[in-house]
Amino acid sequence: MPVRPALDTAREKWYKKDRRERSGPVKRYENMMEGFVEEVLDIMGDSLGCCMCEQCRNDVAAHALNQLPPRYVVSHMGGAISKADTMRIQHLTDVRTAVLQAAQVVKEHPRH
Fold this sequence. Notes:
2 strands; 4% strand
């Protein structure tokens, strides 16, 4: 009986792995700014003066996020640090201003 090369054995193990494991690494980072914009939309939604259907809400969020700097974090500790950083009054004002401007654009040009 011939000896199988190690490469063949490794290849068999690879094919037996779960498909999700082979598809690449799991995303372990996030843009904290997305959560901040969603929070502002939840708080200010009724006072924005534009439609808040799912399409319009997503348009407002996307437009606001394109105006703001991203805040990517990898760990929960990084998220806590980034969250503390955003509590500065100027930063909160920037997020609210971006959401207000985005709502005005969506109000003038709704996609529904």
